[in-house]
Design a protein that fits this description.
globular; 6-stranded antiparallel β-sheet; alpha/beta; 6-stranded parallel β-sheet; single chain
């Protein structure tokens, strides 16, 4: 029926301009035509900043304007236009019609901006009506589908999502599972959106910063949290949520918790409890038990075969590290592993029931939306190679080194503002690439994927361990990898040998002389993705007199240095002193080394692969005299340096003008 129309734009007609009353009358006349043509849910609403922010979630929108010139109009339109000009959100899914019953100048501006953001313009009135009519899929029978959607900043949530897909398909080979970033929720399968009626969704969501959503889940995060969303927005959707977070931050698992509650508020049905995993304690301590309960829940829905089979079998218990590992040797603790002792404590042996399923190689294609607008044409997938034009050391004492770097973004087309951040795509370091080359039996690594896109410094996950085991010709080395990957038997062994010392994948490779990955591509595919690191903008784009712009951006960062491994022996009843491992941050160390010649007064030709990440919420008020209170828990003062510099230069320009 007409009342079951799918995905109509909630504010299908937006009106405004200089003469709001005339634009509203035209919009209401058009609304009646749409209703008569079968678009029962179409609505008319005034232009506003909120309407502009919602465009990337609409399907079709008509904008009715009654403008005068291209200058200031009435306040609601001005707020709409300011947001639209600054927006970095693509609206490729949107079809737009702009009808200007004024002098036409305003309509031309809005239509041009829509096209710049990727919308498809329509001008014929019949096409306008057809665009707003229900899709064919809205009247067909609902199809059940199983989706695993992740919001992942560093790759942990993505890896877990892919492991879930592998496990489900291993338990039920006929079940096809879709794995996508959360921001792909509008992608269609058989004519229906991923999070649409009939969908069963498993959401794996990380929390970044102090309660923020990862980049590939940010759009959906904004969309679903809008209080104006109807209570039946996700009616017919079944879901469960696993949140990943860090208890060192106040808003632990904030994104996962909010999504879990919000889905229920807008009509979705929770089929399994919320899970919260703490990176500070080791994600697997919460992830593994949560997954063990997921399989029976999916089985009860009829989506997979008997998912409780594994749980009906006694899988044994955790093997104490003191029972299978000696400490009378130098180097990594895992070098003292004795598989025979491990198997005596684990009578089931290293069988399939205890191990993760072999996962297909990770795709090198990353589903991240291309930035646009102020961000220019560059993104995490295609970073801009920025010249380094300045550097200085702000502090270097008491074990803390803080460096200030200036990058020239002029040729990128980006237009940054204080409050934005810059993503830096650093490569793997020399030490890790040497270890990879040795394992591959080559002089040096040549694969772009392995150098730039695979994270050799990440802790080896259970899936990575399973892959490495398959490439070991030595049975003891293979069994070590399998023991570390086994659950529950190897859980404590993993904590002592991998989690606490922050073991890196390349260090494990170096400790397995017989491990020979078949190719650079195979090794890169087994590893998690090397993510961009984000740094707050610490400068103003204005020149010192405030009269012009310069796209030279400043970043400030602390060179990360820390120690890992303390407390391991006490936690696992091991003899002797703890093995302490000196650790360093991958990207900050790389940046620090890169700019050292600049610090010595030299010019360098090396570039920094980077891209601008605009912020819509974290920005200065437009009024330069509005008082502000700046609080930076966890972020430091770097962004506020940019705020203060920007205010000072704007005031300087105003004073000169006056």
């Amino acid at each position: 029926s007409k009342k079951k129309m799918a995905e109509i734009a909630r504010d299908a007609i937006l009106y405004g301009g200089k003469d709001v009353a005339k634009a509203q009358k035209a919009a209401e006349d058009l609304l009646q035509k749409l209703i008569a043509a079968g678009c029962d849910e179409a609505k008319a609403a005034p232009l506003s900043r909120k309407a502009a922010a919602s465009l990337n979630e609409a399907r079709s929108v008509i904008v009715v304007l009654c403008g005068e010139g291209d200058g200031a109009q009435e306040p609601n339109f001005d707020r709409f236009w300011r947001y639209l000009k600054r927006s970095a959100d693509r609206v490729d899914q949107l079809t737009t019609a702009v009808l200007d019953i004024g002098d036409g100048a305003l309509g031309a501006l809005v239509a041009k901006r829509f096209e710049e953001l990727g919308s498809t313009p329509i001008t014929d009135s019949e096409k306008v009506i057809n665009a707003l009519k229900p899709t064919a899929s809205s009247t067909t029978e609902v199809q059940e589908r199983l989706c695993v959607l992740y919001a992942s900043q560093t790759g942990n949530a993505e890896c877990i999502a892919k492991d879930v897909k592998t496990e489900i398909e291993a338990r039920s080979p006929s079940c096809s599972v879709v794995v996508k970033p959360l921001d792909a929720w509008r992608e269609r399968i058989d004519g229906t959106e991923l999070i649409g009626k009939g969908a069963t969704c498993i959401i794996i969501a990380s929390t970044t910063g102090n309660g923020d959503a990862p980049d590939n889940g940010e759009r959906f995060w904004r969309y679903v949290r809008k209080r104006a969303q109807p209570s039946d927005l996700l009616e017919g959707v079944r879901y469960c949520v696993l949140g990943l977070g860090d208890t060192n931050y106040d808003k632990f698992c904030h994104v996962g918790k909010v999504l879990d509650g919000r889905f229920a508020e807008v009509g979705a049905s929770r089929f399994y409890k919320l899970g919260c995993a703490d990176e500070a304690m080791g994600l697997e301590h919460a992830v593994d038990p949560w997954l063990n309960g997921l399989w029976p829940s999916l089985f009860s829905l009829g989506l997979i075969g008997d998912g409780s089979v594994r749980e009906k079998v006694d899988l044994g218990s955790e093997v104490p590290v003191s029972k299978c590992c000696s400490t009378d040797h130098a180097g990594l603790l895992l070098r003292g592993f004795d598989v025979d002792k491990f198997l005596r404590e684990n009578p089931r042996g290293l069988d399939e029931a205890q191990l993760p399923k072999l996962r297909e190689a990770s795709s090198t294609e990353v589903s991240v939306e291309e930035d646009n607008g102020r961000a220019g044409a560059f993104s995490a997938i295609r970073p801009f190679e920025a010249p380094v034009v300045g550097a200085s050391v702000l502090a270097d004492a008491n074990g803390r080194r803080v460096v200030h770097v200036e990058l020239d973004l002029t040729q990128s087309g980006a237009r940054y503002e204080p409050g934005d951040s810059v993503g830096v795509r650093c490569p793997n370091d020399h030490e890790s690439l040497q270890a990879a080359a040795a394992a591959l039996g080559v002089k040096e690594v040549s694969s772009v994927e392995l150098i730039h896109n695979a994270d050799l410094s990440a802790a080896p996950s259970r899936s990575v361990l399973r892959a490495l085991a398959g490439w070991c010709s030595d049975t003891k080395e293979r069994d070590l990898c399998l023991a570390l990957a086994s659950r529950p038997a190897g859980k404590l062994l993993y904590d002592a040998c991998v989690a606490r010392p922050r073991l890196k994948a390349y260090e494990l490779l170096a400790a397995l002389p017989s491990c020979r990955p078949p190719s650079e591509q195979a090794l890169a595919g087994a590893l998690p993705r090397l993510s961009a690191r984000y740094y707050s903008v610490a400068s103003s784009p204005l020149t010192e007199d405030g009269a012009a712009r310069k796209e030279v951006v400043s970043l400030c960062f602390s060179v990360v240095r820390y120690e890992a491994g303390a407390g391991t022996n006490a936690a696992h009843s091991l003899q002797g002193a703890d093995r302490i491992y000196a650790r360093k941050g991958l990207c900050t160390t790389w940046l620090d080394e890169l700019v050292k010649p600049v610090l010595a007064g030299k010019t360098i030709t090396d570039r920094v692969p980077c891209f601008l990440k605009p912020s819509e919420a974290f920005a200065l008020p437009e009024d330069p005299d509005a008082p502000i209170i700046m609080v930076g828990p966890g972020t430091g003062v770097a962004p506020f340096v940019g705020f203060l510099e920007h205010r000072a230069r704007k005031r300087r320009a105003t004073a000169v003008s006056a």
